[in-house]
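for the writeup, i need someone to sanity check this before i put it in the appendix. the sequnce is what the collaborator sent (i think, or maybe the updated version? ugh). structure was predicted straight from it, no edits. if anything looks off just tell me and ill rerun, i have time this weekend
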Amino acid sequence: MSQAEDPALSSSSPLTSPVDESDNPLSSPVEPQAPQNLPGLDGTPVRWFDADHKEPYTQITPFQEQNDTSVEFFYKPVTLTALGLGMAVLAYVAMTQDVLKEGEEKKRIGVYASIASFLLFSMIQFRDGPFVRPHPAFWRVVLGINLLYEMAMVFLLFQDLDSARSMMKYLDPNLGVPLPEKSYAENCAFTLQNIWNAIDIFCLAHALGWFGKALILRDYWFCWILSVAFEFAEYSLQHQLANFAECWWDHWILDVLVCNWLGTYLGMKTCQYFEVKHYTWRGFRQTRGIRSKTKRVISQFSPHDWTTFKWEGTASFGHYFTVVLLLAVFLAAELNPFYLKALLWMEPDHPFVIARLVGVFLCALPAVRELYQYVNDPRKAVRMGQHVWLLLATIGTELLVITKWGQGQFPEPLPTSVRWAWAIGAFLLVLYPTVRFGLPAARRYLRQHDRSAKSKSA
């Protein structure tokens, strides 16, 4: 409807408020008290139906989740169906006589049922993260697992070490037995026989771990810095944990130059493949043939797109602080399981230790992606993502638990050389941003102050 067709909407009539207009569009206009407050553009009123709906700002849908629905069946809302199935399974397990007769197993089944119920709620109701493959619900479950682990660590924080060791027997009756610490620095002669004897399943674990770190960090230099920093951390902490004591060639040849390099190289090559890959997603119904449909389903477990990380630690103080913080968090995440398994008397290949490593890897994938966007695109990421926030809390809680339980467990004092090394490292970490960012900022401030003082005196 144009203004010429409706006298009530002519430009000579002032607008009412949007509420009055929507409630009663034929109400008589209210005379404005001051002409300069007349709404509109140059005195011409603008109605809501006059807006150009092709503009991007008119298409904003707050809080609406945008999902990739290439495989339509898996993206249909099933909240009530999941609730019904969950309640049915819960009722069956709780009411079955065979389960109730198991006696001591009832407590364990009750804990497992509580965990499953919480993860079901997480899968359905948690917010989506940055990843949509293989399905947003998968990453909601990962977030739920992280939250459960964090709550468990908070609970253990208020227990003493002996009580925690006794509680671990409920999860695995084989736990609770002291374990001797194994040292890898007994025969350090640089011979082929010693090197061959040092190769074990943990070399493969090293390579797989650094393959995962490369997928998380997506930066060669960051991975190399982290690899070398971890070896120095092992040097400085071997007086507390015997398995940190290794031969020099084990540190720098087997670990850094072979296992860590191989895992990092393969991981970065995978990142480069995903970076240059042409992403064209067709719906499951649009594909023809069993082979094409099978490939489409398998491709659901590959990334939907790929973001290359450029951390640029020397670009600004914010980037520098982020890189140092991420390096510290990664080192803590690497060292924490060594201390936890030593304090709780677990073997390195215990399922709990492996589950913790796999869980942190899955949690770190979306967490680092959220952190990168939070630092480099603050207009889009107005607040820190839920994955990175919770992972930071989890690593921090693990450190608190280790600090509390470790009192009296490691009586040997920190060597003087290690104290000096950490002090020099901390001094350099503070000196670099001071020279790189602090002094130029101070000079700019003094110049501006001098200019303003001169302008006032003139």
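Confidence is low (pLDDT under 50) at residues 1-28, 55-69. Residues 215 and 267 are 6 Å apart (CA to CA).
thx in advance!!
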